[in-house]
Amino acid sequence: LLDAVDVRAFLRARCAEGESAPLEELAAELSGDDAWRVGASGAPESKIVALELDEHALLSALPVLEAPLLAPRARAAVQASLRAVERFFTRCLADRGAAAGADAALLAAAVTAVHVLARAGASPPELRAIADRALAATRL
Q1: Residue 108 dihedral angles phi and psi, to the nearest 5°
Q2: How much is the average pLDDT of 90-94?
Q3: How far apart are the first and last CA of the chain?
Q4: How far is Cα 23 from Cα 20, in angstroms, rounded to an integer?
Q5: What sign results for the dihedral spanned by CA atoms 17, 20, 26, 32?
Q6: Are 90 and 103 in contact (CB under 8 A)?
Q7: CB hemisphere CA count around 138 (13 angstroms)
Q8: N or C: which end of the chain has fewer CB within 10 A?
Q9: For 108-114, which contacts have Cβ atoms below 8 Å and span 24 or more sequence positions?
Q10: pTM for the complete prediction?
Q11: pLDDT digits 0-9 by tens, 23-53
């Protein structure tokens, strides 16, 4: 997995003034003894105060991990179960009209996440926080 994605491509450095730039662009500006300072396009040098990771872009770039591990019959069973959970929520939220589908998808994703994270050993407060955020997002 580490060989599959270069995490540096998803990092940005932020200076004290709040400006940020991709880490790869800043690497060219870093110099010798002052490697902890960055000059942004002719501006005075400023100290790097944070590194920011674009988690969404990084997750999108990761190769699929689960699909190759499942046999075709098992994959079909999992897909059918996931669709059934989403259909259940769609029926429960039918009075919401067009919003029912999006809210059902969010709740189904939250249920799946809670289930997987629970099996991975996540703490009950972490699981509760995920559930609470999904319920709040769907106004339940």
Answers
A1: -65, -40
A2: 93
A3: 38
A4: 9
A5: positive
A6: no
A7: 23
A8: N
A9: 108/82, 109/134, 110/134, 111/85, 112/82, 112/85
A10: 0.51
A11: 777 666 655 545 444 444 445 556 777 788 8
